[in-house]
Structure formats: C-alpha cells, structure tokens
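Slide 14.
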Amino acid sequence: MKARRANSRDRILAAAADVAREAGPGSLSLDAVASRAGVSKGGLLYNFPTKAGLMQGLVENYLKEFEQALETRIAEGGHESALSAYIQLSADECEEPQPSASWIFSAIAEDPEFLTPIKAFKRQLFERLKGETDDLGSLLVCFLAIEGLRSMNLFDSDVLSEDERKLLVASLLEIAG
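Slide 15: predicted structure.
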C-alpha cells in the first residue's frame, strides 16, 4: 500500500511540474494536476492537503532529484571532481527544451519562503565544493557562471548562442580541472 501512495505521489509531483510549466507561473490548479496525474482530487489532497504543500513537495523533489543526479554523476565519473560534475550536470539541464524547474515561479508566487530550502541547498553545495578545492577564486568563477547560466535558462533570457554556451562550459571545466 505504501508503494502505491509513493507512486501516486510521484505521479502527482510530475503532473504538477508539467501543469505549472505549461500553464505559467501562478496558474497551477489542483483540478488540472489531479486530472493530469490520473488521480481524484481527494487522492491529490490526501498526498498534498494544500496547494502550498504541493508546491513545497515540488521544491523538495526537485532538490532531491538534482542531488541524486549529482551524486550519481560523481560516482560514475571516477576522476571527475564534484565541481566538474556540477558544471556538466547543470549545463546538461540547461540544454533541455523547457527549463526543468520553470514551475519554481509558481512556488515562489505561492510562498516566497520556498526560496529558503533552495538557498540552503545551494549554500550546502557551495560549502561542499569549497571543501574540495584549494582555489576559492576558481570555484567562485565556476559556481557563479553556472548559476548565471541556470538563471538565464530559468528566466528564458539566454543571450548566448549554442557555440558560446559550449565554450563557456568547456572553459569552466578546464578551470575546474
């Protein structure tokens, strides 16, 4: 029974991210999410009693998935540093046709406090990367450049050509060593 709930929870979160991406910031409807997920509204409310709870679940799920993808990339990369893995994972995510986390606007519109776990995650990640390098200057350049690339992607304001993005990523990977 618990696996079934987790499965419906995952379906609801995936549907909510899709609906938020398609409908735009602040236009997330619980009815649309329930319909997309193939669950009743009661089933949705069982898993997420409020819209704010659903948005919180989206934020937590996104951070968890990113962290898992990063850990997998580090483990499979062998000699690849955590910073290089972060650069490449972020660059790959920015290549997706639609920003994978564009629903974040909906979450922030619902409650600006949803930035708190994102800030904490980014700070924890930065501290981890900082602990793995002796060159804080290079880390700062790489971290801020990738965060800038991620922000341009999220805000759909990317001004770089494909070649410029590739050059940026290659340059950052070179700096990261």
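Speaker note: The chain has a mean pLDDT of 86.
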